[in-house]
Amino acid sequence: MHSSTIIASIIVLITIVAKHSSVATHDSYSQALRRRTHAYNYGKNQQRNMFLRRLAQQLVEDEDSDENLRSAAWKRDDSASGIVSSSVYGGAGGNPYTDANIFGNSKIFVPKTIHMVQAKYVTGTSVGIGSLQTTYQMFDGTTADGAKFGVGQNTATSSDATDCGSFNLNPNEYIVKVTGGAKAFVYWLQFTTNLGRQSDMCGTQDGDAFTVEQPGYVLSYFAGNAGKVLNTIQFYWVKLPACLSSPCQNGGACNTVDGSCTCKGQTSGPTCSTCGCQNGGTCSATDGSCQCKGQTSGPTCSTCGCQNGGTCSATDGSCQCKGQTSGPTCSICGCQNGGTCSATDGSCQCKGQTSGPTCSTCGCKNGGTCSAKDGSCTCKGQTSGPTCSTCGCQNSGTCSAADGSCKCVGIWTGSTCGSPPPCAEPYCCTDSCSFCTYTGPNQYFNHGIGPGGDLQPGALAYCRRGRGSNFDWMNNNRGAYVLYPTNNNCNLGSGIANNDYSFSGLYATYPSRAVVAGVC
């Protein structure tokens, strides 16, 4: 029985006694008798009043003591940070219960499974919560079963109670709201989680409806009074560690003592959401390690595998090539004619006589070409030198800009313009001494002056038209041209004028110096 009911009853009793003592008497007793009677009654009334006051005081003290015991039973042994209690819902009776210290002091825990049974307590009343039992879980995964509160059996009928089943919570799922009804006892309960799930309602929707929730908190445990049924219930709420309300990412571990995240790999920040991978690399959702992209590697994807001065893209790690390089790693060099790509900036380092961005400009002259191997000049015609600019044509001949061949001038012929024209008419039929190339059969100067010897085909000689009447006579008055060895330089002397010669066929040999070689 609550103290308020007892106190009210005592007050009513005191009031009745006081009123009765104040009623005037109309007896025919004498005034003295009335005074004695009044004094006697006053004393008796005072004794009654004192007794009733002491009784009321004792009951109040006993009730306070019971409430203190109940509060002590509901209270956790430690003052865990963030614990908030709700109002008490229900009626009277039953014994105190609590799951506060199921894991010991300073432990934060939440329900993992809630099991309820509905039953009828008193005939004529609604079905209510017959029993409540909870399996709790700490944030390190440790679990423990709480006590069973209430009998969980019908006490007013012979029929069996109804099992409402178990409400199982998933990982990272917590109860954030409780709805129910209570008055004489707890009639019904229903739970809602942070994921929006609801348990089946257990009990009968009777009594005074209530909704309990604590923004930013989740349900931790229950307390109250229970006997044959759940007489009262109180809800205790706990603020989740920061790393549980905002879970650690990328494999980070939650420290449930201080709520911080212990990050892995290259992650950092309050929830390990900051990824330290570079060049477009991403953090593994499992262990926080870097998953590199493109040509990057290393713990933070900071190692760039691009060659020849190429750089890795900060977006996707692909190579951004420089100079004349290309390819996935910038290893393909586009320099020509033996040129190589700079390891610093990818520009072409040309060889030989090549130049230009890709070494495709060839500096060889006179038709010379650049070697595809080393860029050196491969000269043509009569050219030579590093750039084929040296011309080997003789006697004022020039090298062709197209193919390096000799363009001869004057009388000169041959690949280098070093050969005179053949010793033949009309070239030799002049009065001047001309240099020529002998093309006839071998001749011998019988009385050679100087080196003498054979006059062979291809040999160099001098020629001019012969002088004297005998030549004119021998050659049908057309005259003849005469060959002279190169050491004579058309020095005829005086013999020809005096007909000092012999004649055999076309060629007439002047004994000492010359050969009559043809007609003019």
What would you call the shape? Answer: rod-shaped
CATH superfamily of the domain at 84-240: Jacalin-like lectin domain
The parts where pLDDT drops under 50 for at least 5 residues are 1-42, 48-80, 446-452, 468-478, 492-513
The tally of beta strands, per DSSP, is 43
> What is the CATH class name of the domain at 84-240?
Mainly Beta
Cα Rg: 65 Å
Largest sheet: 6 strands, antiparallel
Quaternary structure state of the chains depicted: single chain
Total of DSSP H or I helical runs spanning 4+ residues: 4
Summed over residues and divided by their number, the pLDDT gives a mean of: 77
Q: Could you tell me how far the N terminus lies from the C terminus, measured between alpha carbons in angstroms?
A: 168 Å
- The largest beta-sheet arranges its strands as 36-39-40-43-42-41
Residues in helices, as a percent range: 10-25%
Q: What CATH architecture label of the domain at 84-240 applies?
A: Aligned Prism
Give the arrangement of secondary structure elements.
Elements: H1 3-22, H2 31-74, E1 84-85, E2 89-90, E3 95-98, E4 109-120, E5 127-138, E6 143-145, E7 162-168, E8 175-182, E9 186-193, E10 202-203, E11 208-212, E12 217-226, E13 230-239, H3 242-245, E14 253-254, E15 261-262, E16 267-268, E17 274-275, E18 282-283, E19 290-291, E20 296-297, E21 303-304, E22 311-312, E23 319-320, E24 325-326, E25 332-333, E26 340-341, E27 348-349, E28 354-355, E29 361-362, E30 369-370, E31 377-378, E32 383-384, E33 390-391, E34 398-399, E35 406-407, E36 434-437, E37 443-444, E38 454-455, E39 460-465, H4 469-474, E40 480-485, E41 502-504, E42 507-509, E43 515-519
Antiparallel strand pairs: 1-13, 2-13, 3-12, 4-5, 4-7, 5-6, 8-9, 8-11, 9-10, 12-13, 14-15, 16-17, 18-19, 20-21, 22-23, 24-25, 26-27, 28-29, 30-31, 32-33, 34-35, 36-39, 37-38, 39-40, 40-43, 41-42, 42-43
